[in-house]
Amino acid sequence: MTRFTALRQPSIFAIAMLLMVLAACGHDSREKHPRERFTREVILKTTPVKDQGNSRLCWIYAMLATIETEHLMMGDSVNLSPAYVARAFFNEQTQRQYVIQGRQEADERGMISMVPQLLLRNGAMPFDSYRLKDDFNSKVVIRRLTKLAMASQAHNKGLSYLQSETNTLLDEAVGPLPRMVFMYGCEYTPLEFAHSVCQTGEYVGLTSFTHHAFGKPFVLEVPDNLYSDPYHNLPMSALIDIMESAIRTGHPVCWEGDVTEPGFSFERGTATLEDKQGPFTQENRQQAFEQFKTTDDHCMAMVGIAIDRKGRKYFVCKDSSGTNNPYGGMIYMSFDYAFMKTVAVMMSRKAFNLPDISAGKSGQQPLQPA
């Protein structure tokens, strides 16, 4: 009895010490990433937050999240597969590498405006029907596909051979493709499904830079604009108003911009600028872009409007880095941050009246939020 008592007392002491250590660790974590209090004025419906892992495919995740929310707000249940769109993009990249004989390096990066085009050309798949494997490494896949394209080109194998070998490689890396989409007792081809969730010209790109005339579209000169897509050019104050109006009327906004500022932190769940970084003007915004202080780094879906305790407004952004932050994967971006650090946005044409710039129209008429 005495021996067991002697053993039991140190155990109780050890447990007490362990609890003290855990409590101290918890305190440090809260101090490191304190949770800011926000009041959500508007929050749109969303699918669960996804995780892009170590890939640089945020542009696919963000645009699909935007399309999903657009449909959820209309009463449709849509949850789309980033893996399917990524595979289509990798396939196109491989064929391009063959044709241009590797004169431009293949990459996994892209812009949000590319996603509707990939959907309309290649189709779409529900999220649960086609997912990336847990060990999927997009950088490795791109390297393997590039080597395949170059080897096929060097031996003049032709595009049919390359397509067959590409499919084999992607089946191994991502998974075999389902032939059909089954939803609510109906059967669709991937193209039919894509056309039901995204129509030609449904989404429009907007930007704000003074080295081009306002009121007209121009091809945005950033490295990831692989398809040379046009974006309608507006004063940034007008663009912020349109973004806010779109969200308040039930339309999400796909955001693309700079996340290299110290005030952007997924761990904190906030994106802010300090007052000393101001004044926040169109001229200073342009200067930051021309000096490469504002770069095209990341994409998210804006799905809400919130205010902090001081009454400052924020966009609620759905990120694609998982849920391990104070807001379950959401990031609160201040309007000042969006004003200075936005490179481009996309939203449904239903959110406002805008001519079809994809058809080459100049879009001289004023923009009017819906």
Number of distinct helices: 10
What sort of overall outline do the alpha carbons produce when their principal axes are compared? globular
Write down how many β-strands occur, each being a DSSP E stretch of 2 or more residues: 15
Q: Helix/strand-derived class? A: alpha+beta
Verbal overview:
- This protein is of the alpha+beta class.
- It has ten helices and 15 strands.
- The chain has helices at 2-32, 58-72, 82-99, 114-122, 138-154, 159-173, 190-197, 236-248, 282-290, 335-341, and strands at 39-43, 181-183, 186-188, 203-207, 217-219, 230-233, 253-257, 264-265, 270-271, 298-307, 313-318, 330-334, 342-348, 352-353, 368-369.
- The strands form three sheets. Strands 1, 4, 5, 6, 7, 8, 9, 10, 11, 12 and 13 form an eleven-stranded mixed beta sheet that branches.
- Strand 8 (264-265) and strand 9 (270-271) form a beta hairpin.
- The protein is globular, with a radius of gyration of 24 Å.
- The termini are far apart.
- The model is unreliable at 1-31 and 355-370 (pLDDT under 50).
Present the secondary structure layout:
Elements (H helix, E strand, L loop, with lengths): L1 H31 L6 E5 L14 H15 L9 H18 L14 H9 L15 H17 L4 H15 L7 E3 L2 E3 L1 H8 L5 E5 L9 E3 L10 E4 L2 H13 L4 E5 L6 E2 L4 E2 L10 H9 L7 E10 L5 E6 L11 E5 H7 E7 L3 E2 L14 E2 L1
Parallel strand pairs: 4-6, 9-12
Antiparallel strand pairs: 1-10, 2-3, 4-13, 5-6, 7-10, 7-13, 8-9, 10-11, 11-12, 14-15
Summarize this entry quickly.
The protein has 370 residues and is α+β, with helices and mostly antiparallel strands.
